[in-house]
Amino acid sequence: MTDYRPDIHTENDIKLMVDSFYEKVNNDPVLSPIFNDFAQVEWDSHLPVMYRFWNTLIFANQTYKGNPFGVHIPLPIDKKHFDRWIELFEKNIDELFEGPVANNTKERARSIAMVFESKLKYIK
Question: Which candidate, 58, 56, 51, places its Cα nearest to that of 9?
Fold first, then answer.
């Protein structure tokens, strides 16, 4: 029997992707302290921002307005955090979805992480 996983097609898919990913983040010993202790993320307001961010990246609907890199500048993060973020993000996508949009989403996430990590090396 095949384990069918749909591709990412709707805003509800993005909500599921974001909610399940940040559940993993909140239970992760590497990332949870950054989000919850250092940044003290207010999840009720942060998650809708992430829905808009990914909706904009995946569906080009332009609902996200912001400076995602700027938010990361004060965080005490380095390669191990970016590597763990990507590991959890890709695992989460693979558990829920498969197809060209899911693959493109993982590629976009890797690209964002690489750019942020590179830029932060020169700022800090």
Answer: 58
- Side chain identity at residue 96, one-letter code: L
Least Cα distance to 8 among 92, 97, 88 occurs for: 97
Is pTM beyond 0.85? Reply is: yes
Structure tokens at 66: 């912001």
Report pLDDT digits (tens) over 2-47: 689 999 999 999 999 999 999 999 999 999 999 999 999 999 999 9
To 5 degrees, how large is the angle CA 104–CA 83–CA 7?
25
Mean of the per-residue pLDDT values of the chain:
95
DSSP designation for 118: H
Alpha helices in 27-99 (DSSP H): 32, 43-59, 68-72, 79-96
Short-list 79, 116, 109, CA closest to 94: 109
Give me the domains of the chain, ranges plus CATH numbers: 11-123 (1.10.490.10)
